[in-house]
Hints:
By secondary structure, the chain is of the alpha+beta class. It is 24% helix and 31% strand. The chain is built from four helices and six strands; from the N terminus they run ααβββββαβα.
Amino acid sequence: MSVKEILRMGNPLLRKEAEDFTIEEIKSPETKLLLEDMWDSLEVAGGIGLAAPQIGILKKLAVIKLSEESDRYPDMEDSEPYVIFNPKVSVVDETEQGFWEGCLSVPGLRGFVERPRSIRVDFLDENAVPRTIEAEDFLATVFQHELDHLVGKLYVDRMKDIKTLMFEEEMVFDEIKEEVLD
Length: 182
Ligand code: ZN
């Protein structure tokens, strides 16, 4: 097990476009180790998703696992663990939905971000097998957030109103949520 340091906003590696993996690379022992490090780092950080550029690897890989037990995002249901190589995202329903997003690379802060409510993602799994999933609701936002990391984007770039950027410790979460959603 190896827990990697998570780069924070301001590090130029978070602003670069990542490169695709080859099939051989996905199947290599090095990538298996990288995946273990990603899951370990995500678990220790208490997050629900992590992209390889966040640990300084400029390759198109992200892992996502929603957990009921997350303190960071209450009222969330467990999801399967997703391993996503070389994703292509397309919008299924462009109706926007908003969530208070946080990011392990932007610690301590939350911002209100609106994104399409349903997307399709074509990607390769950990065995380099092509998969397609349609994600809706909160999972759609999580996928878009993580996959943005692979093209050098952070959630703050997607915010329409910078006044909703807040320190978690200052947020009276329910009140703010109602205010913004009204
Ligand atoms: Zn993030």
